[in-house]
Protein: AAA family ATPase
Organism: Nocardioides renjunii
Amino acid sequence: MTSIEGSVLVHCHRGCSIDDVLHALGLAKADLFDDRKGATYTYINPSGRAGRTVHRTPDKQFWQSGDLSQSVLYRLPQIVEAVAAGTTIFLAEGEKDVHALETINLVATTAAGGVNGWAKVDVTPLAGANVVAIVDRDTAGNDWAAAVQARLAPLDTHLTLVTASIGKDAADHVGAGLGAQDLIPYQLPLEPPTERATERGIAFTHGAAFILDSPASVTPLWGTGSDVLWAEGEALMLCGGQGAGKSSLAQQIVKARLGCVPGNRVLDFPVSVTTRRVLYLACDRPRQIRRSMSRMFTEADREVLAGRLMIWEGPPPYDLAKHPELLAVMCERAGADTVVIDSLKDVAIGLTEDEVAAAYNRSRQMALTAGIEVLELHHQTKRGAGGTAKADTLADVYGSVWLTAGVGSVIYLGGAAGDPIVEFKHLKQPAEPVGPFRLRHDHTRGQTTVGQQIDLVGLAASSLGGVTAKAAAAALYNSHSPSRAEIEKARRRLDGLCTEANPRLRKIEGDQASQVPAAYVPC
């Protein structure tokens, strides 16, 4: 038994119930209290006077008396003093739990009335505090934790949810002889979101703001100028075969998004740094993802990782195609404005079906509309021997067309599993196409760099009479017979080098009648 203020705690190390222990000792529950009528807990108002008193009977019946005009935290004077001193505050569901925590030298508090009490109590004394909430192991505990989280969110508190190692609540935990270091991290379960408009609100944007007040150009999250690999407000999909380095590249983008990369550049293109959090859905082989990330981050990144990177291990709790709002809800819970889905096959089942893929796309678009940037990892269609054929078009991306229709950018990484050099190809672009080029993976350090690139200015300088769009396309796409689309893409890139602020190429017009093509020469 453990003595606390007003009563004692009983714990059987063999797992017997309290009733069994009391029966063996010939005692009643009333014998566990200093007063056989039960316990009384007096709350102190900000004025320093006694406020409400909570009465508890031995059979756990409650009522209140005294001044009920104010709803304050239990042990308010001690809480105010502890917050000012920077001491961690422990929250529990009941006054008995508070008394138990005080026996192990912790500062603790609660609100009268359980879950309903947290809707009314003045929580402002906890503003800016480091708070640890001990959640009871029952359904009511989940409701209490959600209420606490909702009330403390606007106060800039640092809230950690934990639960008892043994027993149902904090009192059971202390009664078993355990301390604060033995508490177990707790994650509030997500409920299936509903589709009711009242939960998200209905908001309209007038036409002038939507059309005239928005930036005309694409804003890159990853890229610069017209070379945009990932555009703000548009999802990016990294596609390729298994082991081609999709996760590694995505994790490098995450590292730069968190501001942990010198110069914040990936593949020599700048990445916009977020001031909020990144949520990484490690759905597919989370242990492998952990090992990959451990090669990129060091102890010097601990503070950023602890405060701004949130990891969800395994698939989401519900299929995103069946619960489209869930992705935005998870990001809201994590405080994230960026989400990485590794990978798509694990968040929605049946992506080859148009209905499923369209439903997932709805989830994606709802997240984007909520201001969340989306990065997805996906696979290519298996074709050829061993399923290693190149993905040259969007049709080669696995699943329904709705998957690629709803993203702004699709990047393909081609190569066999573990290859140190893989192909980079921009299958869908928010602005001008980037690449193609070769990427070099350093698997030991978890770094990817651009290897072989086609220098169009250098190509023009080395070509007698300049380079044509067809010759540029042949070099860019490694093809002796580039398609019309590839030639047109090469032409746009060459024209861009002629019209930029400091032109590096000059265009010599051709003669259509004599079938002499235009050529581009260095300035």
